[in-house]
């Protein structure tokens, strides 16, 4: 039996043909997922609109709204093992990642934004009119479509859902068709927590569901995480429908700069974590390594050694360090780009092939001798593929910054050095939403996350997400009237 849709407080079957969800570690179907029809998408949006105006939601006191978010966080904790196993089975990530990053991360987001509910303040402005009070209010935007990706389905849903609900919005959730299951379970827990009917709606689907939401005239704001190509389609659909507000977290191609004074062992460990977490299926993954020529050989050798000792395996196997890629389609995408890298002359140091086992596993791969013009430096691979380039030393800092910035993306970057001036100059010069000095790209709910350039619009997490889900209203009060 297929999973169900959740519309206006009811669990219902999708009217379109259900689709298969695969266990990527086995390459076999393990669940059927309901597919919403176009009419059901309309019903979900209508339910969210009605709930937005309902006193059951609108008139809740901030402390009451916060209590619902705290309750949801507690329910996630109570079901942590079940959620982690489900995420691992559906997405492929090692169980420890599901536990610590996905499930604990999701619960922490609901707690963090529950804390914000009672602290969403406006301001007063000293306008130049006599007898006039001017103040601002932050109001919820209205109906929000949340279109979430397949790399961290549960956690990224929490990035969007927690601030949306904290600010008093209503939502229609549309998970990636590749990984819908943890979203279905989270919505069950939200219903159990007691959110009023219509506040949280879920439409699973693939093929047109996302497009229906992006073109919908009664969606006020859409938050999307995924490819830049779809991000562009969404901006077009917004422009051609109702100019809905957009928050877009799109592709990345993070540079990693390793200076001559870096602790190479620490840099290798940090870059392996930053480049291969979730098998490289991370928008902020470190992918192109610019190493000072004096340390290049040592870095490549140690990186390749680290990569080749990593244990590939099903996420549910506790010894596994690298899980499968999420789907056969994505495995083919990674394989194609690795072949392009070889054809363009990158030196394959280790890996480079689909692993010889069931499921969608790709060998972790290191390319050396990579040139700036190569496709592996520019295209988002979103897999376990690390490309090493080099640079000439401290005098090259300006050109190094230019090379790091020679990309359409600007989500994240990293610098490895003991010299504070080098770190600061690079952090200032690189055009990216986050620069990590001597550490992997670890998000935190208190810190903004998002990109420059084609990596997106707006910021998630931190206080910035409160802005993403609110409108600012200016109230002018003439008390001399
Ligand atoms: N930034 C990140 O975290 C992520 C980046 N990626 C990158 O994206 C690449 C391609 O991944 P892919 O699996 O194709 O997924 P995409 O990221 O391209 O997005 C697929 C999602 O977008 C929705 N969608 C498609 N068209 C529209 C539209 N016009 N309006 C609104 N939503 C739409 C789909 O829903 P529907 O079919 O129902 O319309 C589905 O939910 C990956 O190789 C990777 O590089 C992928 C995942 C996460
Ligand atoms: C160490 C945890 C890394 C989590 C990265 C979250 C990724 C987000 C994205 O790809 O959009």
Overview of the structural elements:
- The protein contains 16 helices and 19 strands.
- It folds into two domains: about 5-250 and about 455-475, Aldehyde Dehydrogenase, Chain A, domain 1 (3-Layer(aba) Sandwich); about 255-435, Aldehyde Dehydrogenase, Chain A, domain 2, CATH 3.40.309.10.
- The mean pLDDT is about 100.
- With about 475 residues, it is α/β, with parallel strands linked by helices.
- Helix 10 (about 265-275) crosses helix 11.
- The relative contact order is 0.14.
- The strands form five sheets. A seven-stranded mixed sheet has the order 13-14-15-12-11-16-17, sandwiched between helices. It has a six-stranded mixed sheet with strand order 8-7-6-9-10-18, with helices on both faces.
- The site of NADPH dihydro-nicotinamide-adenine-dinucleotide phosphate has 29 residues, from helix 8, helix 9 and helix 12.
- NADPH dihydro-nicotinamide-adenine-dinucleotide phosphate binds next to helix 8, helix 9 and helix 12.
Question: How is the secondary structure organized here?
Answer:
Elements: E1 5-7, E2 10-12, E3 16-23, E4 28-35, H1 38-53, H2 55-58, H3 62-78, H4 80-91, H5 95-117, E5 132-140, E6 143-147, H6 153-166, E7 170-174, H7 181-193, E8 200-202, H8 209-214, E9 221-225, H9 228-240, E10 245-249, E11 254-258, H10 264-276, E12 286-292, H11 293-308, H12 328-343, E13 347-350, E14 365-368, H13 375-378, E15 385-391, H14 397-404, E16 412-416, H15 420-429, E17 434-437, E18 456-457, H16 464-468, E19 470-478
NADPH dihydro-nicotinamide-adenine-dinucleotide phosphate binds near residues 151 and 225.
